[in-house]
Amino acid sequence: GRERQISSAPVVMTLQDISHGRVLLTRDDDRASLMSLGPGDTKERDLSWLDWSIVNDISPDGKTLVIDEAGEGGGPDYAVYLRASDGTLAVRLGTGAEPQLSPDGQWVAAVEEHASPPDLAFYPTGPGEERHLALPGIHPDWVAFLGDSKHLLVSGSEKGHGTRIYEVSRDGG
Q1: How far apart are CA 30 and CA 128, in angstroms?
Q2: How many other C-beta atoms lie within 10 A of the C-beta of residue 168?
Q3: In degrees, to the nearest 5, what angle opens at C-alpha 28 toward C-alphas 27 and 30?
Q4: E-assigned strands of the chain?
Q5: What's the confidence (pLDDT) of residue 119?
Q6: Which string of b and e fits 31-66 if b means at least 16 CB within 10 Å?
Q7: Rounded-to-5 percentages of helix, strand, coil across the chain
Q8: Is residue 64 within 8 Å of residue 58, measured between CB atoms?
Q9: CA-CA 20 to 30 A from 57: which of 91, 115, 121, 148?
């Protein structure tokens, strides 16, 4: 009849059953692992970074991975990492989801769906400043670079319309 707090803990829990003062809770410890067999490797290497490491892109030579960290460790806005397949430490580029590496290897594009309004973030893979591209009226879902590294395809939706694919320039337009 009334709402009441059953339990509180700094972990993810699922209420499985509750009846007559008895509670059955499970502690959820989900994890996505990232295994790699990079160029020249003879055995797989665990390249998982935090708790939900998903590879979204790989450089053509197989030496660089673009990771979307979407679990608790990635935070509410998710996190984008660049990591070499040799096992060296990952480098956090910024926030966003569905990150993609440009064909020239100079940029990683990610959807910042939690930004207000949602936009595209561009992170340099070397020295440089991050950039953002607003898409007025469009809520982006994913992004992919075209071959020239300056144009992208963006899947998204406008109010009152279903999902569409747009071609946009990294510099706007």
Answers
A1: 35
A2: 19
A3: 155
A4: 12-19, 22-28, 35-36, 45-46, 53-58, 64-69, 79-84, 91-95, 97-101, 107-112, 119-124, 131-134, 138-145, 151-158, 163-169
A5: 92
A6: eeebebebeeeeeeeebbbbbbbbbbbebeeeebbb
A7: 0, 50, 45
A8: yes
A9: 115
Nearest to 45 by CA among 82, 105, 88: 88
Is 8 within 8 Å of 27 (Cβ atoms)?
Answer: no
Three-state DSSP at 155 gives strand
- In tens, the pLDDT along 10-20 reads 778 888 998 88
Residue 37 Cα distances to 7, 41, 64, 97, angstroms? 43, 6, 12, 24
Q: Which residues of the chain have pLDDT under 70?
A: none
pLDDT tens digit sequence for 42-51? 999 898 888 8
Contact call for residues 33 and 48 (beta carbons, < 8 A):
yes
pLDDT of residue 112: 92
Distance CA(89)–CA(72), nearest Å, equals 19
